[in-house]
Design brief:
The chain is mostly beta strands. It is built from 1 helix and 13 strands. Helix content is 2%, strand content 43%. The protein has a 6-stranded antiparallel beta sheet. The longest helix is centred in the N-terminal third of the chain and has 4 residues, at 39-42.
Length: 174
């Protein structure tokens, strides 16, 4: 059995990583955001958490909704805007945000509205797999399943994304 991880980590010990994707999959408006994983550093098993760092005028992720996982956010630094469905809510330090599971009416996105200051927030999520999600702005759907970790400690995840209009028929190719 491996060495037991400390259940405590200070935010200043986190190591932010640039959110990366191939250029054709990551619109310019999302580039530059970073995520500092916490869960694997403290041995969390049923909750995923990280600190997300968003540059001025950007968002870390497109608007999306989950059918499996609920998310919660706590604004640590900066200000921004929460979009849920068609509604917009201003955000400031200390705000706690609930994003329950549901359809496109629950689709959410946090955007940094500042012209010069960074937005930092704690993100917490249940880790229910498989998860199904939608991106209502682009008409995409997706699913993911966490398979565990490889020998080097990297997460192994099966991800599928498509546009609903491109779904194959049940008997297609059979």
């Amino acid at each position: 059995m491996g060495e037991r991880l400390s259940p405590v980590i200070n935010l200043d010990a986190l190591q932010p990583e640039l959110i990366t994707a191939p250029p054709d999959e990551s619109p310019k408006k999302y580039r530059g955001a970073m995520v500092a994983p916490i869960s694997p550093r403290v041995g969390a098993q049923k909750l995923g958490y990280n600190v997300t760092i968003v540059p001025p005028g950007k968002a870390a992720f497109p608007a999306h909704n989950h059918y499996g996982n609920e998310e919660m956010f706590l604004v640590l630094e900066g200000e921004g805007e929460l979009r849920v469905g068609a509604e917009r809510y201003p955000l400031r330090v200390g705000d706690v945000i609930a994003c329950p599971v549901g359809g496109p009416e629950t689709a959410h996105q946090i955007r940094n509205t500042s012209a010069s200051a960074t937005l930092r927030y704690l993100a917490v999520s249940t880790m229910i797999f498989p998860d199904l999600y939608q991106y209502p702005d682009s008409g995409k759907t997706g699913a993911s399943h966490f398979l565990g970790f490889d020998e080097s400690g990297e997460r192994r995840i099966v991800r599928l994304r498509n546009r609903e209009a491109d779904n194959l028929g049940y008997w297609d190719g059979e």
